[in-house]
Amino acid sequence: MHKGRLEAFSDGVMAVIITIMVLEFKLPKGNTLQDLIPLLPTLISYIISFVFIGIYWNNHHHMFQLVEKVNGKTLWANHHLLFWLSLIPFVTNWMNDNSFSKWPVILYGFILLLCGVAYYILSKALLKASSENERLERALGQDQKGILSMVIYLIGIGLGFVNPLFSLACYVTVAIIWFIPDKRVEKVVFSEEKER
Length: 196
Known about the structure:
Blueprint: H1 4-23, H2 40-64, H3 72-86, H4 88-97, H5 102-129, H6 134-140, H7 144-159, H8 164-178, H9 183-195
């Protein structure tokens, strides 16, 4: 099967996720800049979650640059990723409504961890579906960055029992690690362009 519909559907779902998050913003009760101060937790959690959705979209887009075709397993692996991503607005809202308290922050990290696991599963499903695609295999390699991210999420979840701010620091660290789209794919694509 061609990958075009999967990419279009994924793009649409991620756009809706971001739209849902921005709709959680409530208007300030007044008309001064000080009236925006109570909205800071909402803004902070929105920015963090927006960055994560952007990171997933960027890397999803990059990975699919090296994929020609998909199969049923990759479709379901992609749906699995989109399912966990679709829960980010819920946990984002719960987290900011409760001033970054313990359980909302822990659940936020758990959802981020499952997004990471789902992305890892998708990449492995794409490798199996495209066994002849050495470009994808070369680009993904051992995925040490992905595995490191999941370890940091687990540490962050554990630290949530001590102090939720430590958890948030771990989650932001993962976002910093992934902020620039995965260079492994760009290296493969650019090296092939140079060879032509």
